[in-house]
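Please decode residue identities from the backbone states below.
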């Protein structure tokens, strides 16, 4: 009990310092708990949606893929209406209805604005069925009754200001058609963001599937008392052809699995960044307790002198850490729930609707938060606690500070140098690797070893780097600058730990910046070298290009040719007898002009001949294929063909790497028209000297189709740069949490350092140091510590990024580009971070009473 009282007294005596450390614990725990609550809530939302909308038994074509939102043909797999008749007559079926559903559509309003989601959620078009009433209610107007009527969901109507009577145009591979809104239906469960439109059954069949009398699903409802499993068996027995049958549970599970894989990636990525923040928080806590222990050295000596054992002193410090961990973790759990609600509101603002009614806080979430916060805090405080327990009573009574252990410092430096050297060797090995898998292992090992090495060797580096930084900066500012330098060098271990916290976040920023810039530079160089087409036409959502767009492009003036580019799925059997699933590119012969591919054998133009194809040199080497060999190609949905290898292309590229080419006419020989994929891309070549006019004409020709874009090579490069930039900005935003925790560490270090130097500060004030000079000294000390951490982090990160780029060169990313503007901006920004972190400590030091400071023991 005495130990607990002592710990509580010490905790309360330094509550301001503890509060900053508690904030670090709070932020780390909040990010972990917020991530768990947010992803659990999304899972709950989708689970409810899938469970409510699933029929007792769903029948779909055998080839249908629930996860394929954009089938290559642009039309979903379908089955004849006779299946509906058979299912309706099956024993135990109370009701059966045919459903039509397609996600390969675009819906636009009268102003030609896309009504789809901006978050990547699909636009779903289909017929209105009784099964839809399980999840939706018509709240305005009525269901569609003919080809000129359409019903929309309420979320889409509210988002785009749609009302009854407004006209919508639906774009599908079968053509465009218009209809007026006859009704609006509201979801009774949360709709995560999909835009949904409904037509009458005949219109949906004709416009989405190409002909009436077809369905994509048959939905069967069982009689009371009949289990879904038994109903599935009865339907399977009644159908004489192989169809895909799913019970309500199986259909819901399939939907959960599809969404769950995406949510898992997002969850673990966010938890990874939370882990970085936790690691940075460890440095803050270690520094805080180290300094608090150092300031209480005399007090600890007195405790030892009156009979306290090492274990009791150790336990006292650990109890303080336990209190800190519990308080920070409890607050962090609460903050995490608030963070999750904030993320839901953010997602709502960009189109993904998540209701707080579905807010899911599992018991494991607060448990994980509490355990994480407490364990991390206690573990971080163990080294300072152990150090406190080792202080001898007489040494402590003689000295108000903790004497440095020179031998321990030399051992630490030796270990740090060894780890850093081993890490550097691993990075070099990764950069020289011939295989990506082997190189990745060495890269990961090198990153870990160099990071740990820099952390361990931090005190040694602090003495060197701080002097280097001070020479051109602090020493030019006179005595105040030199005092700031000496203060930063006074305790290299403390400076090293404080700088290391900032180093971790900035190292990741630098590494990802180098990799991102190198990716863009490599792709840009490859485009300049390989792409001969003037224009590339693609879809924003990855949907197939509808024939209407292709026809409009081909009619544009000033265009020499338009090249089709389709992706065909097939089973490929090589001469060595191995059969593999492959995706082949079926293109026009002009594609050989639009993309300049290097061949290692044969001529690429010959691959576009009758019953001919090309393969990549990696495939050829793996299977012993050479020019003149014949491959068996079993087209999925069509017949098998014997195609002669007319060319082998080099895979030393990142554009169409590994692609196998054939003529579109070859694919059309073995695939029925309804199985022929739509174009994935289109390429266009302008008449020489008319590129500018053709560019404008192409854009105008497809202006009625807002989801498709025409890009020249400049646009394409900028689009790639923007995509990488957006991804990096998201990563930088997540890393900001770790940097905030690191800034708290600088604030805490400076604040405790000011307390530690109270008497010294009083003496300096007494001999003439002004308040302004004192504040400047503390600010400069903070700046040099921040620059020290930034220099280490940026240098380390650029080393990681360079090694990663050399490894990625095996995949065609051969250009190493250091983003110096970003690196310099981050370095200069670190100085402002140091200034910001010093504001409060400098202000408090300036207000210190001189006489009281001198009298401080």
């Amino acid at each position: 009990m005495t130990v607990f009282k002592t710990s509580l007294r010490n905790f309360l005596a330094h509550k301001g310092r503890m509060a900053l450390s508690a904030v670090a614990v709070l932020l780390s725990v909040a990010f972990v708990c917020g991530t768990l609550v947010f992803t659990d809530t999304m899972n709950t939302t989708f689970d409810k949606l899938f469970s409510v909308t699933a029929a007792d038994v769903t029948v779909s074509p055998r080839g249908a893929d629930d996860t394929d939102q954009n089938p290559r043909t642009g039309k979903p797999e379908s089955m004849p209406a006779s299946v509906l008749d058979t299912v309706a007559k099956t024993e135990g079926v109370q009701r059966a209805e045919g459903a039509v559903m397609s996600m390969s559509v675009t819906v636009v309003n009268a102003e030609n604005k896309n009504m789809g989601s901006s978050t990547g959620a699909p636009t779903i078009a289909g017929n209105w069925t009784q099964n839809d009433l399980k999840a939706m209610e018509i709240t305005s107007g009525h269901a569609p009754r003919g080809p000129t009527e359409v019903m929309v969901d309420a979320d889409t109507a509210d988002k785009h200001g749609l009302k009854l009577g407004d006209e919508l145009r639906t774009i599908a591979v079968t053509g465009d058609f218009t209809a007026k809104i006859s009704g609006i239906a509201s979801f009774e469960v949360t709709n995560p963001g999909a835009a949904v439109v409904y037509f009458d059954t005949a219109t949906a069949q004709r416009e989405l599937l190409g002909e009436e009398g077809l369905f994509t699903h048959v939905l069967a409802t069982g009689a009371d008392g009949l289990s879904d499993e038994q109903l599935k068996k009865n339907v399977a027995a009644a159908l004489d052809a192989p169809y895909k049958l799913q019970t309500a549970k199986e259909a819901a599970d399939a939907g959960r699995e599809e969404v769950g894989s995406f949510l898992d990636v997002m969850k673990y990525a966010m938890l990874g960044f939370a882990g970085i923040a936790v690691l940075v928080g460890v440095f803050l806590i270690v520094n805080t307790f180290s300094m608090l222990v150092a300031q209480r050295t005399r007090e600890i000596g007195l405790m030892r002198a009156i009979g306290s054992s090492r274990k009791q002193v150790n336990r006292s410090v650990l109890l303080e850490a336990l209190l800190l961990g519990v308080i920070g973790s409890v607050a962090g759990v609460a903050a995490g729930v608030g963070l999750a609600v904030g993320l839901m509101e953010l997602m709502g603002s960009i189109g993904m609707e998540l209701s707080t009614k579905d807010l899911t806080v599992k018991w494991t979430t607060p448990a994980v938060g509490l355990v994480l916060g407490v364990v991390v805090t206690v573990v971080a405080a163990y080294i300072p606690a152990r150090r406190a327990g080792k202080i001898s009573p007489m040494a402590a009574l003689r000295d108000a500070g903790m004497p440095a252990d020179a031998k321990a410092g030399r051992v630490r430096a030796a270990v740090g140098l060894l780890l850093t050297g081993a890490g550097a060797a691993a990075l070099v090995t990764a950069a020289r690797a011939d295989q990506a898998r082997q190189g990745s292992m060495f890269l990961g090992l090198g990153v870990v070893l160099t990071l740990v090495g820099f952390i361990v060797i931090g005190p040694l580096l602090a003495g060197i780097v701080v002097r280097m930084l001070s020479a051109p900066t602090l020493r030019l500012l006179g005595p105040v600058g030199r005092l700031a330098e000496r203060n930063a060098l006074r305790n290299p271990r403390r400076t090293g730990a404080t700088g290391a916290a900032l180093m971790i976040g900035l190292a990741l920023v630098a590494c990802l910046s180098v990799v991102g810039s190198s990716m863009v530079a490599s792709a840009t160089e490859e485009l300049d070298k390989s792409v001969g087409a003037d224009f590339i036409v693609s879809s924003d959502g990855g949907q197939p290009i509808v024939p209407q767009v292709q026809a409009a492009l081909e009619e544009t003036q000033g265009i020499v040719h338009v090249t089709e580019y389709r992706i065909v799925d097939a089973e490929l059997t090589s001469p060595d007898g191995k059969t593999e699933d492959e995706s082949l590119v079926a293109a026009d012969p002009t594609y050989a002009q639009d993309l300049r591919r290097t061949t290692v054998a044969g001529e690429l133009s010959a691959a576009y001949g009758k019953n001919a194809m090309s393969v990549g040199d990696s495939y050829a080497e793996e299977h012993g294929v050479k020019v003149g060999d014949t491959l068996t190609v079993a087209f999925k949905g069509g017949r098998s063909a014997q195609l002669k290898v007319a060319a082998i292309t080099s895979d030393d590229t990142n554009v169409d790497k590994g692609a196998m080419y054939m003529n579109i006419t070859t694919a059309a020989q073995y695939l029925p028209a309804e199985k022929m994929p739509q174009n994935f891309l289109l390429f266009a070549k302008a008449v020489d000297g008319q590129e500018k006019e053709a560019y404008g004409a192409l854009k105008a020709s497809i202006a009625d189709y807002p989801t498709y874009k025409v890009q020249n090579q400049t646009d394409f490069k900028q689009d790639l740069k923007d995509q990488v930039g957006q991804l990096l900005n998201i990563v930088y935003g997540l890393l900001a949490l770790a940097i905030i925790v690191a800034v708290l560490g600088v604030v805490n270090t400076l604040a405790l350092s000011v307390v530690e130097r109270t008497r010294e500060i009083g003496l300096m004030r007494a001999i003439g140091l002004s308040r302004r000079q004192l504040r400047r000294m503390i600010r400069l000390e903070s700046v040099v510590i921040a620059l020290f951490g930034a220099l280490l982090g940026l240098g380390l990160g650029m080393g990681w990024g360079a090694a990663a780029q050399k490894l990625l060169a095996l995949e065609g990313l051969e250009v190493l580009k250091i983003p110096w503007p970003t690196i310099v901006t981050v370095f200069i920004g670190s100085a402002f971070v140091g200034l910001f972190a010093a504001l409060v400590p400098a202000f408090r030091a300036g207000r210190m009473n001189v006489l009281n400071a001198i009298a401080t023991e």
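Observation: The chain has a mean pLDDT of 84.
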